[in-house]
TrEMBL record:
This is Glycosyltransferase. Its EC number is 2.4.1.-. The keyword Glycosyltransferase applies. Residues 17-188 form the Glycosyltransferase subfamily 4-like N-terminal domain. The keyword Chaperone does not apply. Residues 198-348 form the Glycosyl transferase family domain. Coiled coil: none annotated. Pfam families: Glyco_transf_4, Glycos_transf_1. GO terms for molecular function: glycosyltransferase activity. Keywords: Glycosyltransferase, Transferase. It is an enzyme of class 2 (transferase).
Length: 385
């Protein structure tokens, strides 16, 4: 039995995007007979089991100095590895996090097959979020070295979308290593509601409500401001329209002020952090889920999560969303702006009024296009079996 260590960027109990993907991969690999564990930074040196996957953490707390972060993570990562695994090496080291992979791919022997999954290229991601100053800097040079070293040490580089692949700076030179492997979800977790009416009543939605839901980090690149303005344009044309916004982030106060200025506070609800036990029920209770992304959406897991729960998704034609919805192009807005979003919602609503929506068809799209068995085979091929 091959032994696989997957490197994640943080404790998977946080259940954020990349951590969810790494945990899902680990669960799937174990299902297919590989002895798979997760290794990642946490608040302390710890070992535990999560959803059937052994998880090992090393202590790391982020500081303001990039150089201090680099040195501390390097030291603690190696200490954690020695503490948990001693001299034992896995057959495969599969990284989803640049930093831990950078350290371990250097120190583990050449016998270890090293594979890396790119969610967002490192330099691109930090520039997009405004974390790198204009022009060359020590931080940028460090990150460029780390990113290039990660790619150089990998036998294969998996990109979660074509959108991600084309943002790798030296993609032409790396072409023989690059391979697109879409994300997938746990379809045993994201399921159809037993009773849609009961799912809606749980959150106080009536039969006359048209529930528009989004689950996003409240950051500029997520496009929530455009969604709110688009909702304002259609609110009076859709009886019972409600916009429910799940997620937390730095822009919450600004977005709440926008809602007040548009005088739509009676129809817009900010949920803040959505607890794990509400994630699936919230999808199930909605009539439609919106992905208003502007930039940095390397894949778009909420599309699969929502549709697996039977709820249709509308999205901007940005980032990787056209790839994820390639079989449902009519679900893409004509642009990223409020008027595009408003027109798309109105068109969907009119069709929904006339024809309803078929939850089974929504779920089948996920099963057909993002099936675990097909995607895991792409990974197993690079594992050598």
């Amino acid at each position: 039995m091959k032994r696989v260590t997957i490197l994640s960027s943080a404790d998977p109990r946080q259940k954020r995007g990349l951590q969810v993907v790494a945990l899902t991969h680990a669960k799937s690999l174990r299902k297919y007979g590989l002895e798979t564990v997760l290794f990642c930074p946490g608040t302390q040196y710890e070992s535990f089991e999560l959803e059937g996957v052994p998880v090992y953490t090393f202590a790391f707390q982020r500081r303001s100095s990039s150089l201090l972060n680099f040195v501390t993570m390097m030291d603690n990562c190696w200490r954690g590895w020695k503490r948990h695994f001693g001299k034992q090496e896995p057959d495969i080291l599969h990284g989803h996090d640049y930093m831990a992979y950078y350290f371990l791919s250097k120190y583990l022997s050449k016998k270890v097959n090293k594979i890396f999954t790119v969610h967002d290229p490192m330099i691109y991601h930090h520039k997009m979020l405004g974390r790198l100053p204009q022009g060359s800097s020590l931080k940028e040079r460090m990150m460029t070295h780390i990113e290039n070293s990660v790619y150089a040490r990998s036998s294969k580089i998996h990109c979660i979308s074509e959108y991600t692949r084309i943002r790798i700076a030296n993609k032409e030179a790396l072409a023989p290593k690059l391979k697109i492997v879409f994300d997938w979800i746990d379809v045993d977790k994201f399921v159809l509601p037993v009773n849609k009416t009961q799912a809606r009543l749980k959150f106080g939605f009536g039969s006359n409500d048209f529930v528009i839901y989004t689950l996003r980090g409240l950051q500029a690149r997520m496009g929530i401001g455009n969604l709110i303005q688009g909702f304002k344009l259609i609110k009076d044309s859709i009886p019972g329209a409600k916009l429910i916004i799940g997620g937390k982030g730095a822009l919450r106060n600004e977005l709440e002020e926008l809602v007040r200025c548009l005088d739509i506070s009676d129809s817009v609800t900010f949920l803040g952090y959505v607890p794990e036990d509400e994630v699936v029920p919230r999808y199930q209770a909605a009539d439609v889920v919106i992905m208003p992304s502007i930039d940095g959406e390397g894949f778009g897991l909420p599309v699969l999560e929502s549709m697996a729960c039977g709820t249709p998704v509308l999205a901007t034609p940005a980032c990787a969303l056209p790839e994820v919805l390639s079989g449902k192009r009519e679900r893409l807005f004509s642009g990223i702006f409020p008027e595009n979003i408003a027109a798309g919602i109105m068109s969907f609503y009119q069709h929904w009024q006339a024809n309803g929506s078929d939850a089974n068809v929504e779920r089948q799209y996920v099963l057909d296009h993002f099936a675990e068995d097909k995607l895991i085979k792409l990974i197993l091929d690079d594992y050598g079996g």
